[in-house]
């Protein structure tokens, strides 16, 4: 594993603590650090993190595919995605000297090359998968000792802050998510060379020189900052990944830590070429200098894996959202035709014609309730974010990973088991609407969360063994029985 290096951001850290930097000061809180030098916080920010100057090329740059690059002088413009990068600090007190170099591996659909991006003050905010454009006047062969030679035998070195003949642009706005996403060597309908399942990779495939794995992001951990034994500041993020054969933990270090913020759980697929593997027991993946990461590559296997991940989440979501707009509850309620089913009927119908969508009535008895026990475990309400289930006895909370404000819904496990004369149905096979919960409990989710123990005990005693008339809906897309309305009979 490569020695850990300080993050790029840490270089530009102003002397005030970072919490103060990001929080815009409220006018009534007059902080002593704001007084004195007469500069506003935005002016200080602009001086510390200048944007790269606007650039107008003075000559013609030939737009070139990376695969067509030839070593030597010549004005070329390249476009590609960052598949790896690392940071080399070269701190200097000279006012015009570079403070460091970002060594990127940039890939388009034809090849990959290395780019040494020198910087003095500009914070480039790089991440894996970012689409970038590079204008340069010289390309050379990579030093043969360099680790990045594999797949990227050419290198160009640019210092846009000092050299007006080259430029670097992150294509944040113009990225429509399709350019430069075909894996190198991929041809439609053909298996990519060296691609193996995660299980095969862990069980020996990693010894192959050019092993590739295709994994989907399962969950993303929080960014952890700590000080190493050598006294250096370090940062890491753990990302759980999986395919249909195995699970693994991918640890990202330093500058790579900002990348997962752009990934979606159960959606983002990573094609990792030559990942590092270490750890006994649970397999741990890492990125070495020689690794390439294609984020959401355009290839059939990636689409299949994303579909597979989405089907899994549908089954595993701790509180599957109620499907809005699938069933016309009003119309069904007004209809004179009321078909009463038994659980056995539904079982039979769903097996015979799963694609059929229908709404009907059931007469069910509650035989298991978990109000009291869920309350005690602080699990009355729940939802999921960043692939992590979140429980609370409250209707709102913040995700610890992405800090998004979340609205929690009543935990479907509140009603453990319902029966009729033909069978039983467990909470795992039901999706309740907010209305149905309110009709059953006689109170909103907010009221339930705010109830005291005595009231919850009373509620549990009152509802247990009650007979319910349930309006339900079935749709194959949901894959579970939806409870639309409940009447206590
Ligand atoms: Zn989240």
Automatic annotation (TrEMBL):
Renumbered to this chain, region (Disordered) spans: 1-41
GO MF terms held by the record: single-stranded DNA 3'-5' DNA exonuclease activity; single-stranded DNA binding
The Gene Ontology biological process annotation of the record reads: resolution of meiotic recombination intermediates
Ranges of compositional bias, category Polar residues: 1-25
Q: Which SUPFAM superfamilies match?
A: Nucleic acid-binding proteins
Which InterPro entries does the annotation name? MEIOB, NA-bd_OB-fold
Q: Which domain of life is it from?
A: Eukaryota
> What is the name of this protein?
Uncharacterized protein
């Amino acid at each position: 594993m490569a020695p850990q290096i300080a993050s790029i951001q840490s270089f530009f850290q102003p002397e005030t603590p970072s919490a103060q930097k990001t929080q815009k000061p409220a006018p009534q809180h007059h902080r002593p650090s704001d007084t004195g030098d007469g500069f506003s916080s935005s002016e200080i920010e602009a001086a510390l993190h200048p944007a790269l100057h606007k650039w107008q090329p003075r000559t013609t740059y030939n737009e070139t595919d990376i695969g067509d690059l030839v070593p030597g002088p010549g004005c070329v413009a390249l476009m590609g995605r960052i598949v790896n990068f690392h940071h080399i600090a070269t701190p200097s007190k000279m006012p015009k000297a570079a403070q460091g170099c970002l060594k990127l591996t940039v890939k388009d659909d034809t090849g990959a090359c290395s780019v040494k991006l020198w910087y003095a003050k500009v914070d480039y905010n790089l991440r894996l998968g970012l689409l970038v454009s590079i204008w340069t006047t010289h390309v050379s062969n990579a030093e043969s000792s360099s680790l990045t030679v594999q797949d990227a035998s050419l290198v160009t070195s640019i210092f846009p802050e000092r050299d007006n003949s080259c430029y670097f642009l992150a294509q944040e706005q113009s990225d429509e998510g399709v350019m430069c996403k075909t894996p190198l060597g991929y041809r439609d309908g053909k298996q990519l060379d060296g691609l193996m399942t995660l299980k095969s990779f862990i069980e020996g495939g990693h010894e192959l020189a050019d092993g590739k794995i295709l994994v989907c992001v399962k969950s993303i951990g929080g960014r952890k900052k700590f000080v190493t034994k050598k006294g250096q500041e370090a940062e890491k993020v753990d990302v759980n990944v999986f395919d249909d054969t195995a699970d693994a933990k991918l640890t990202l270090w330093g500058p790579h830590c900002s990348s997962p913020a752009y990934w979606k759980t159960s959606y983002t697929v990573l094609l990792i070429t030559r990942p590092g593997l270490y750890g006994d027991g649970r397999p741990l993946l890492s990125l070495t200098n020689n690794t390439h990461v294609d984020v959401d590559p355009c290839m059939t296997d990636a689409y299949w894996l994303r579909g597979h991940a989405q089907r899994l989440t549908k089954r595993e979501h701790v509180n599957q959202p109620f499907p809005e707009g699938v069933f016309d509850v009003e119309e069904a309620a007004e209809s004179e035709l009321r078909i009463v089913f038994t659980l056995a009927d539904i079982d039979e119908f769903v097996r015979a014609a799963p694609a059929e969508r229908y709404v009907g009535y059931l007469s069910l008895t509650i035989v298991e309730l978990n109000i009291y026990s869920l309350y005690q475990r602080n699990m009355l309400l729940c939802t999921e974010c960043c692939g992590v289930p979140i429980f609370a006895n409250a209707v709102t909370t913040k995700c610890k990973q992405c800090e998004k404000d979340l609205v929690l819904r009543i935990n479907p496990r509140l009603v453990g088991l319902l029966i009729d004369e033909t069978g039983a149905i467990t909470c795992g096979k039901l999706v309740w609407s907010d209305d149905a919960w309110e009709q059953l409990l006689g109170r909103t989710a907010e009221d339930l969360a705010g109830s005291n123990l005595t009231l919850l005990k009373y509620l549990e005693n009152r509802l247990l063994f009650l007979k319910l008339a349930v309006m339900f809906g079935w749709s194959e897309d949901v894959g579970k029985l939806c409870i639309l309305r409940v009447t206590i009979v």
